[in-house]
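Action item from last week, closing it out:
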Amino acid sequence: MYISDVTEIPDATMEKIRARPVHVLVLDSLLWDRDAATHIGCLTAVKIAREIQPKHVLLTGAVALAYLGSACDTHAQRERWCLPVCSGMSHSQGDHDPFDVAFAFDGQRIPIRL
């Protein structure tokens, strides 16, 4: 499921999304620590993912990657360090999400079984 360019998801829409299992959820999130005027941020994306309960979450948004570039030099560092921080920022110690979170990248392929 791909959700792009949103600032919120209406309750009626969220009910329809939750009515079916979601394997991969792709969310457009531009900023690391806050929402923007036109897009959700990383923390809101993780909050939405917690409501939907997918198996995998991919975050898109060039600004988020550029922002993380100052703290994480390589894609591998972003995967190992920055994303666990993102998904754990609003959790208490010891809590874990039932899904993984990663940044999507140009040219990425996601296998889909029909």
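Closing note: The helical segments are 11-18, 42-52, 62-69, 75-88.
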